[in-house]
Amino acid sequence: MTSEYPVVALVAAAGSGSRLGGDVPKALRELAGVPLVAHSVARLAAGGVERVVVIVADGLQQDFEQALAAAPIPWRLVVGGTERQHSVRRGLAAIEESGSAGVVLVHDAARPMVPPAVVAEVIAAVRAGHTAVVPALPVVDSIRRIRGEASEVVDRAPLRAVQTPQGFAYATLLAAHDHVARSGLEVTDDAACCEAIGEAVHVVPGSRLAMKVTEPTDMVIAEALLAAFPDQILTAHRT
Ligand code: CTP
Ligand code: MG
């Protein structure tokens, strides 16, 4: 079922990047002269994605067309919604309009450095039969749960920080987003949508390079990582 259809990625790029600041939306901010969204699409393509639907804020279509002019795979733009989950749902509707898909990845444009090896591993896990797949990393900080004025330590050993791209069997992701939209649930990622309909979420190793650009310091770190690892063809992080 998953091999006769193309591997499609939805790239969520409709946010404003309020925590990052600046005068252009985050996905259009440049890293080494290339917009974050273009970095993301190039990494997805190198990992095996065959076409992308980029979800953007209304009014910015021309800017994104320019940003994606040199993209190595076919892309189309779709206007997003107020929350990330609404944006992804609109992207899914666009896939439906243009046929179907086998494997669907959902990626944050704000993770421009994701190694193609991680993308490929997510795709492979979906092809192997996992209907919902996330790349994730062990948590390195000590974690405390706040209870009013008090706090207590949390055992971090079983915890994982989840990244993108997350991968799904197309039918599963559609059903999951339909359920979430109908029930009014608020979720932070697409794997959580799938969990809400009882799907098991399979975890594969993520990478420090798949960091999310959220605040100004993250741009500095991303620039440094790009300079240190220019080819990006790196293996997944396995600790
Ligand atoms: N996103 C989206 N549609 C929204 C909100 C977010 O497509 N309504 C996308 C963002 O463009 C980003 C990804 O989801 O690539 C992850 O969101 P986040 O890092 O929170 O980005 P922003 O919402 O843009 O940033 P902020 O929360 O700081 O405003
Ligand atoms: Mg946000």
Write a structural description.
- This protein has a single domain, classed as Spore Coat Polysaccharide Biosynthesis Protein SpsA, Chain A.
- With 239 residues, the protein is α/β, with parallel strands linked by helices.
- The C terminus is likely disordered.
- It starts with 7 loop residues before the first strand and ends in an 11-residue tail after the last helix.
- It contains seven helices and twelve strands.
- The protein binds cytidine-5'-triphosphate (CTP) and magnesium ion.
- Cytidine-5'-triphosphate binds next to helix 3.
- Cytidine-5'-triphosphate (CTP) binds next to helix 3.
Which tags fit this structure?
eight-stranded mixed β-sheet, binds magnesium ion, Spore Coat Polysaccharide Biosynthesis Protein SpsA, Chain A, two-stranded antiparallel ribbon, 239 residues, alpha/beta, binds cytidine-5'-triphosphate
Largest sheet: 8 strands, mixed
User: DSSP helix count?
Assistant: 7
CATH level 1 name: Alpha Beta
Q: How much β-strand is present in the residues?
A: 15-25%
Mean pLDDT: 92
Rg is 17 Å
- Sequence stretches where pLDDT stays below 50 over 5 or more residues: 233-239
CATH 4th-level superfamily: Spore Coat Polysaccharide Biosynthesis Protein SpsA, Chain A
- Based on the coordinates given, report the CATH architecture: Alpha-Beta Complex
What structural class is derived from the secondary structure elements? Answer: alpha/beta
CATH topology: Spore Coat Polysaccharide Biosynthesis Protein SpsA, Chain A
Apparent shape: globular
Bound molecules: cytidine-5'-triphosphate, magnesium ion
Counted beta strands: 12
Write down the domain tally.
Answer: 1
- Report how far apart the termini are: 32 Å
Order of helices and strands: EEEHEHEHEHEEEEEHHEH
Overall helicity = 25-40%
